[in-house]
Design goal:
By secondary structure, the chain is an alpha+beta fold. Helices cover about 25% and strands about 25% of the residues. Bound molecules: dioxothiomolybdenum(VI) ion.
Amino acid sequence: MIGKPLDRVDGRAKVTGAAKYSYEEPVPHVAYGVIVTSAGIAHGRIAALDASRALRAPGVIGVLTHHNAPRVNTDAQRADKKLRLLQDDRVLYDRQPIAVVVANTFERATHAATLVAVSYDRAAAVLDLHDDGAQPYAPARANRQTTDSRRGDPESAFSAARIKVDSVYRIADEFHNPMEPHATVALWDGPRLTLYDASQGVFARRSSVAAILDLPESDVRVVTKFVGGGFGSKGGTQAHVLLAAMAAKVVRRPVKIVLTREQMFHGVGFRPRTEQHVKLGATSDGRLVALSHDVLTRTSTFDEFLEPSALISRMLYAVPNAATTHRLVRTNVGTPTYQRAPGESSGSFALESAMDELAYAAKLDPIELRLRNYAQSDPHTSKPFTSKSLQACYARGAERIGWSRRTAAPRSMRDGGLLIGLGMASATYPTNRSKASASATVHGDGTALVQSGGTDIGTGAYTAFTQLSAEALGLPIEHVRFDLGDTQMPQAPVAGGSQLTASIGSAIVAVGAAMRAKLAGLAVADAASPLHGLGADAVSVANGMLSGGGHSESVAALVQRHGGAVSALADTTVPPAAESPYSAHSFGAQFAEVVVDPDFGTVRLRRLVGAFAAGRILNAKLARSQYLGGMVWGVGMALHEEGRYDNRFGRVMNANLADYLVPVNADIPQLDVVLVDETDDHVNPAGVKGIGEIGIVGMAAAIANAVYHATGVRVRNLPIVPERLLG
Ligand code: MOS
């Protein structure tokens, strides 16, 4: 059951349209909210805002502005600074929400939104990392780690090193753009609020909404049954969620808000641009002696988010002298947020490009260089890894792409007039886990319902957790239903940080054990059971049967005699990572074969291979799909994605899917995913590491390294567009 490539249990509902996404939730008497955003100004104040024409437009029910919006909780400890919306006349970035028009149809609201008249007083803005007025500062933390790190004496070691790399890498701002835009339906029932919301975590959403609205959490319910992609953008609570709740309160009707595709580029989070300075020093035989990785990136003027790109450099290679730093610049932009493998994906481009540069400088094969610097334990924490199969990933990936045919020199492989290149990079992602709970009820017909309030953001959580639940309960899979996506279910963390399967999976393992113990206890104490009188420990539950001492009976029969339903609940907690004797990461190796036309500077992909080891794989088909998705995102980072700004106004100029390029089918070559077997008995009760994010890590570097191998041109600024190759 575990590991099998089971089809998605929700697949049929999705392809037939029976699956309801948040905006589709049928709510009687619903009204439609459309957000009005600032324009032509990156910083300043609203001088005048006149909603009278909008209010007179057909179908309009109300207009929310900073004049009439409910006041929110501004307690800095509790409330999300991004959500202080419509509270005053300040404008802090382009396309900031400044009003919400509510009408009885979406079209009427959209039209009336164009009738809101606004004038501004403009102030000076900071828009780039190096603008006048940009003042880099050190944030307090880099995720759960320190902002900076240091071991040994990297400056002296770098000075003395025989071989050196000293390079700066840049990545453009990137936007998530899931196919399902952000959407929320808000309903009030007296003091109680229900949100049908496209979210990555219903409990996290409930906490932030309750805090900003100063409500008890018990008065807020959040439901998310299906999500059309998140990639991090639906982890945090974005503006429309609060605006829908406020608008519904003011107009005394349920209100739904969905963002336009253009609005998906503004004020709803993005991966912030990075400038990364990497220095590597090595001995003449390619052993690293010094590493430094300094990251400069940006946040908003009013809130803080850090893309922690240097974390990967702390732990990936065995280098005795290493220092990393993260610095932020406050710019007039909406607050950035997590985007697929935040930190590792951007950081791996810098580190793994620098390693490729070092391989050429040391005249070593790039895989051999990495093997010479293989970290047997975590060099940052000095702890052993729960498991690490990176050597096998290198070997299996290299074999699959045909690495042995690669000739070392740049421009040495050709196909007619075209240049061929092979490149590779390492991948890693930390294994995260948060406390989670799960409930299970077994019925008298032998079926079971298992619940935990996580979300399935398209990853296949419904399916993987159904498989795991069946195994944990000892029931046939066709008798088990797993449900999620509601704060009325047991608590679960956000589907982010690749942690959901480890977190809920561990709770399912625990509730399964609790249920089997309970059933065994009932059986041995029940005079009507053939297992009566045995020790409970002697009874096992598998495939719907209780067995022990040569006797057996069905779970269904036992449960029928005990009220027709037996329930169990399990809460799991997770000690802080600092207290664990282990360091937990998944690992992988990415490979790219590219074809470059030297006349036009165009890069085509011929083949991509990713080999990954991430502990126990619950469903090979879903896992492969997760990895493929990550790799395709890596193609976007390498070759396509680039937020382009009008620096007079801080406006994203390519705020649509025609001008902001993402990979399409024609860009994607044969993709191979190699699932490297790995058993991990230390990582968590479910034995799984995260697989949601590692698929993107290293892919941009593998492609950039292949482009260098093909052309001899080292592109250190992403994306690799033709003009950067033609130089
Ligand atoms: Mo993921 S970027 O942690 O949702």
